[in-house]
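Here is one chain, start to finish.
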Amino acid sequence: MANFHQMLAELRLERDQLEEAILTIERLAAGGKKRRGRPPNWMRAITAGAPGRTRKPFSKETRARMAAAQKKRWAAKAKASTV
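Its structure:
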């Protein structure tokens, strides 16, 4: 009996996802040509739930090595431009 309840819950979830997809496609079709500028709020709300790329911050040691390497590149470029 509990299995039927789980199946119903999954089917309802799938139905909601399909209805949302249909609504999105209808809105895109009604829009016609591509818009310029910021997307409308309804479209931004859909893409906001998408997982974004998270980046791990660099350690102090890594940032120091990167800064030293960049200073070395700048020095080499400055030396080449004066010669």
